[in-house]
Design brief:
Layout (H helix, E strand, L loop, with lengths): L16 E4 L4 E4 L5 E2 L1 H7 L1 H9 L24 E5 L6 E5 L16 E3 L9 E2 L6 H13 L6 H5 L7 E30 L2 E25 L6 H7 L8 E2 L9 E3 L5 H22 L6 E30 L2 E8 L5 E3 L5 H33 L1
Parallel strand pairs: 7-12, 8-11
Antiparallel strand pairs: 1-2, 2-3, 4-5, 4-6, 5-11, 7-10, 8-9, 8-12, 12-13, 13-14
């Protein structure tokens, strides 16, 4: 699909056109112009044809030639585990004791054969220690007034696990060409009248944006929304992969291939390119996108392990998964709400408001009685 967006714009002022059901025409809210669909299609036939013709990427594949499955002598010191509950495939250094699955909390982790996995190019080491992660979670719980006490008392904070999550990191470039409709308004007086003048502008920005290390998580068990929320990671601290970083931690084996991840990677690149063009447009009171074209040039693909602290807990039959960026300490996750605490607080506030209302009404009645 082309990334060119062909939108109908007013031929008079280039503002977006809106279809009006009553008149069955395309109308401009800025200048009042009105056009039939046939008129606008004729005017923009060339634009539509161009939109269909522009490819979203150059006819080249992502360069994954550097990915390798050769672990060499390191393979002898690695161990593999499989969770029979959720299917997670985990790897770790042989001295690491895997006691439970970091995704579903299942305690039955089955040793397996270490084979058939790519060797990462990079690893981003943990900076947040387990002790710091536990204390941060305690502070996080302390701020949640509706959190069930039994949940915070029995959530086994010490079971926080550090896991290296697999990511594909992609490099590339994007040529972006974006158009906008901008306005500036100013007001002045003409006799007894206050006059507002609105100026309309057709704004265009074009340029090339280079991308390096755009991350896309390669684990189906990890929710994409969670992984996006944990960003950013500081990739300046990436290290060439070494098993020396693994003792004490688990590492998830990717189950989303590089090829499967590239659609999401390209989407992130396009959004970033459009965002960069938009950020360069200044000085307008309103700004509306009226078209964009982004052409990607695919580059290198890297395989990396990024640090995440996880805590899986259960409460009244429901699963709760908390995650923390192992480099920055940023946290995401769901927490249950104590219905008793919530309704107790609601009742307390209701009583307080009723008393306040009653005292206010009494004061008004006394004022009318004594002051007439």
């Amino acid at each position: 699909m082309s990334t060119q967006i062909a939108e109908y714009k007013c031929p008079a002022c280039t503002a977006p056109l809106r279809y009006d059901e009553s008149s069955e025409k395309l109308e401009c809210e800025y200048c009042g112009g009105s056009f039939t669909l046939a008129e606008v299609e004729s005017l923009y036939a060339d634009q539509l044809e161009e939109a269909r013709a522009v490819p979203e990427t150059e006819e080249t594949d992502w360069d994954a030639s550097g990915l390798s499955g050769d672990w060499g002598e390191d393979a002898a010191g690695m161990r593999a585990y499989t969770c029979p509950s959720c299917g997670a495939e985990l790897i770790c250094e042989e001295t690491t004791a895997a006691t439970s699955c970091p995704y579903c909390g299942n305690n039955a982790i089955v040793p397996g054969q270490f084979a058939g996995t790519l060797k990462p190019d990079y690893v981003l080491p943990f900076r947040v220690t387990k002790e710091e992660a536990v204390q941060a979670l305690k502070r996080h719980y302390g701020k949640r007034i509706f959190l069930p006490k039994a949940f915070s008392d029995h959530n086994h904070l010490e079971e926080v696990q550090g896991i290296y999550v697999p990511f594909w990191l992609v490099d590339g470039e994007a040529d972006a060409d974006c158009a906008y409709h901008g306005t500036r308004s100013h007001t002045h007086r003409e006799g007894d009248y206050r006059v507002t003048v609105t100026e309309h502008f057709h704004v265009r920005r074009a340029g090339t944006v280079a991308f390096a290390r755009v991350p896309v998580d390669a684990s189906r068990k990890m929710q994409d929304a969670y992984m996006d929320a944990l960003e950013p990671f500081d990739f300046r601290e990436l290290k060439p992969f070494s098993t020396a970083y693994l003792p004490g931690f688990l590492a998830d084996k990717y189950d989303v291939s590089a090829e499967e991840s590239m659609g999401r990677a390209e989407g992130r690149c396009r959004n970033s390119a459009e965002g960069a063009m938009r950020a360069d447009v200044l000085g307008y009171q309103t700004l509306v996108s009226v078209g964009s074209r982004v052409r990607l040039r695919r580059g290198k693909v890297h395989y990396a392990l990024l640090p995440v602290w996880t805590l899986h807990t259960k409460w009244q039959g429901k699963d709760y998964l908390f995650m923390m960026n192992g480099q920055t300490g940023k946290m995401v996750g769901d927490l249950p709400i104590s219905q008793g605490k919530f309704w107790g607080m609601f009742a307390l506030l209701s009583v307080a408001l009723s008393l306040l209302w009653g005292w206010t009404g009494l004061g008004q009645w006394l004022a009318r009685l004594f002051l007439g």
